[in-house]
UniProtKB/TrEMBL annotation:
GO terms for molecular function: nucleotide binding. It comes from Xylanibacter ruminicola (Prevotella ruminicola). Pfam families: GFO_IDH_MocA (PF01408). Residues 5-113 form the Gfo/Idh/MocA-like oxidoreductase N-terminal domain. Signal peptide: none annotated. Gene3D superfamilies: Dihydrodipicolinate Reductase, domain 2 (3.30.360.10), NAD(P)-binding Rossmann-like Domain (3.40.50.720). PANTHER family: BILIVERDIN REDUCTASE A (PTHR43377). It comes from the Bacteria. This is Predicted dehydrogenase.
Length: 316
């Protein structure tokens, strides 16, 4: 039985999900963990359901004692603080789980990659474990795909019920918000399935009446030696859509990531898969622990995530 010493830096909605899944997964393996939480303020009490899951709470701004060491640090604070967090904790952990995007800006000192070279560091990419994309990865030959067209459209004020969307990091460019990097999942899975583009053009701007100062529309068109890409991302679509269309010589394959459906439009075949969100969020936690326990390779490194960030920001 292993007892993991874990730190969470930040505890928003996605970190709360990770925290619950870590406890559940380790318990299912006969393991346990103690969790330290680092927060920007100590004035907000934890929700009752989370209090038993956290052993100690510290102020992020305070100096970390030299002898404090962790098996894992989850970097789940606002994107604008990721670089500083990785740098601060690099001498205090055996591994990192970094929420996407890896950093807010590509204008960072790339020496950070040397700093964490010996520390297994994984950048979140949960859509890899979505049942629909797993189906595509396993059953669709990327060499057969002439063009891939992806979309993620949703209404930002509906993202976090009970929270004023204007006060979230997504609404503010200086906190790492903006649809182009908030929805970086799409570029991440496109490169996972079809490789990096060699050419890419983009339109990234604010076009709606949402009260935000970050971009709410990002449109890309690109290509590599095998496949062309089209990608549409927005914060203002009133009906949530997350889809991928694959155009081949023989068929058009429509993939609905939310409904969990793969449809071969020419052949008339429809496949229904499990699309329950926490199923793939949990699969990612399992995969991460397999990485740090040397049971599988790290397929989402900070270096790769940094290249994806460049594409998403239109700096490729």
């Amino acid at each position: 039985m292993n007892n993991y010493k874990i730190a969470f830096v930040g505890l928003g909605s996605i970190a709360t999900r990770h925290l619950k899944n870590v406890h559940a997964y380790l318990a299912s393996q006969g393991d346990s963990c103690t969790v330290d939480l680092y927060r920007s303020s100590l004035g907000r009490p934890l929700a009752d359901e989370l209090q038993p899951l956290v052993s100690n709470t510290y102020l992020f701004a305070d100096e970390i004692p030299a002898d404090r060491q962790y098996d894992v640090v989850f970097v789940t604070n606002p994107t604008s603080m990721h670089y500083e967090t990785v740098e601060r904790f690099s001498g205090h952990t055996k591994s990192f789980f970094i929420e996407k995007p890896v950093f807010y800006s590509t204008e960072v000192d790339e020496k950070i990659f040397d700093t964490i070279k010996g520390i297994p560091s994984y950048v979140a990419c949960p859509l890899h474990y979505n049942a629909v994309l797993q189906y595509v990865k396993q059953h669709v030959n990327p060499d057969d795909v002439i063009c891939a067209r992806a979309m993620s459209s949703s209404y930002l004020p509906d993202w976090r019920p009970g929270q004023d969307y204007r006060k979230t990091y997504s609404a503010h460019k200086d906190l790492g918000g903006g649809v182009s990097i908030d929805l970086i999942h799409e570029w991440d899975y496109l490169t996972w399935l079809f490789g990096m583009p060699t050419e890419c053009k983009q339109l990234i701007k604010k076009v709606s009446n949402l009260e935000i100062d970050s971009d709410d529309l990002a449109i890309y068109i690109g290509k590599n030696e095998k496949t062309s890409f089209e990608l549409h991302l927005d914060y203002f679509g009133r009906q949530t859509q997350r889809t991928l269309d694959l155009f081949t010589a023989d068929d058009t394959i429509h993939c609905d990531l939310i409904a969990g459906i793969v449809s071969y439009l020419k052949k008339g075949e429809t496949i229904k898969l499990n699309s329950e969100r926490n199923a793939f969020q949990m699969a990612e936690i399992v995969h991460f622990f397999e990485i740090i326990n040397n049971k599988t390779i790290n397929d989402s490194t900070p270096e790769h995530a940094y290249q994806v960030l460049k594409i998403a920001k239109g700096e490729f």
